[in-house]
Design goal:
By secondary structure, the chain is of the alpha/beta class. The protein has 17 helices and nine strands. It folds into three domains: 183 residues, Rossmann fold; 74 residues, Helicase, Ruva Protein, domain 3 (Orthogonal Bundle), CATH 1.10.8; 63 residues, no CATH class. The protein binds adenosine-5'-diphosphate (ADP) and magnesium ion.
């Protein structure tokens, strides 16, 4: 019988999951066994920690590997669209439904449906999903006919789902259905030993033909190790892509990576009180609050890569209130978006 390590290596190779750090191996060690089961899986972890990649590993290791893996990004679709995307609709089910359409559940038949940002589902869609999980049945929008669904569901979230259950915005019964198995992926700052292996992987993956001899300057290596990576592996990949495209020679230097330096991070430390003579308690308190708010917002937007809805959820604020605060401090969420493509040279 294959050892656990061998099976884990297979899983890693299949999904190109790079990493050897104990926290990471510990997180993914059950993937081969989880894959064999038909039960749902909930993958948790900060943004960019590799949740979608882990979901793919589960699919490709499962008996369903020959059928489709269908990802659904629940957060990027408006409420009503999400339901019609998932369940499909009959002709005339709503104003724009001119033709009948199959949903993603039908596309994922015999395969795996990956529900990313599952916390963004409306309560109505949650009820319908629960139905699919419990009875393997669903109904397209505007249809009276029930259909069978043979799918396996893997869900992912970076929201504190248990807290959302307590707050009543996520159904407890669905939560327990989803997390028969749970996999928690550690943030990159808790697996810094993997930074260099990941860097080598991303250099190979992204280097244009003819530029395969790329190297990192010693300071650039140090900077990669020292940084905290709030955007995790995705942010690291973006930095490497920038490095590849901005370096003029085969040596990638710190400045090419475009990551905040350790000095800048240190400047972000909260202000300390040097003297109380300068101004009143009230004025000083106000200043401290403003400093805190500005820094908190910067950090929050950085961690959520400029996604205001996601940031609001994580901070426990209404989206509108967070928007007002950002305006007050003239912070533009767009500046925190990671580039999909390398910066133009
Ligand atoms: N362990 C890993 N090895 C190789 N690439 C990884 C790893 N983890 C994440 N990535 C890459 O980082 C990016 C973000 O991963 P993704 O699975 O989309 O994260 P999440 O779904 O948690 O936001 C993707 O390009 C993915 O291929
Ligand atoms: Mg993702």
């Amino acid at each position: 019988m294959e050892s656990l390590i061998e099976r884990l290596r297979d899983a890693q190779a299949l999904a190109k999951l790079v990493g050897d750090a104990p926290t990471f191996l510990n997180a993914i060690r059950h993937l081969p066994d989880v894959a064999k089961s038909e039960a749902s899986v909930l993958i948790t972890g900060e943004t960019g920690t590799g949740k979608e990649l882990a979901a793919r590993a589960i699919h490709y290791l499962s008996p369903r590997a020959g059928s489709p893996f269908v990802p659904v990004h629940c957060g990027s679709l408006p409420d009503t669209l999400l339901e019609s995307e998932l369940f499909g609709h009959e002709r005339g089910a709503f104003t724009d439904a001119r033709t009948q359409r199959h949903g993603l559940i039908v596309q994922a038949e015999k395969g795996t449906l990956f529900l990313d940002e599952v916390e963004a589902m409306t309560l109505k869609a949650q009820v319908a999903l629960l139905r699919v999980l419990q009875d393997k049945r669903f109904r397209a929008l505007g249809s009276s006919r029930e259909q069978q669904a043979d799918i396996r569901v893997v869900a992912a979230t970076n929201a504190p789902l248990e807290q959302l259950v307590q707050a009543g915005t996520f159904r407890a019964d669905l939560y327990y259905r989803l997390c028969v198995f749970s996999v928690h992926l550690p943030p990159l700052r808790e697996r810094k030993g993997d930074i260099m292996a990941l860097t080598t992987h991303f250099l190979k993956k992204n280097a244009p033909a003819g530029r395969t001899a790329l190297q990192l300057a010693p300071e650039a290596r140090e900077a990669l190790q020292a940084y905290d990576w709030p955007g995790n592996v995705r942010e690291l990949e973006s930095a490497i892509i920038r490095g590849i495209h901005l370096s003029r020679t085969s040596l990638i230097e710190v400045k090419d990576l475009g990551i905040p330096s350790a000095i800048e991070s240190r400047q972000n430390l909260p202000v300390t009180i040097v003297s109380t003579e300068e101004c009143s308690f009230k004025v000083m308190k106000q200043r401290m609050i403003e400093t805190f708010e500005r820094e908190y917002l910067h950090r929050l937007m950085h961690e959520h890569q400029g996604n205001v809805s996601q940031a609001a959820l994580a901070a426990g604020k209404e989206r509108r209130d967070l928007g007002k605060l950002l305006k007050k401090y003239q912070i533009d969420p767009n500046q925190f978006r990671l580039p999909d493509k390398p910066y133009p040279i």
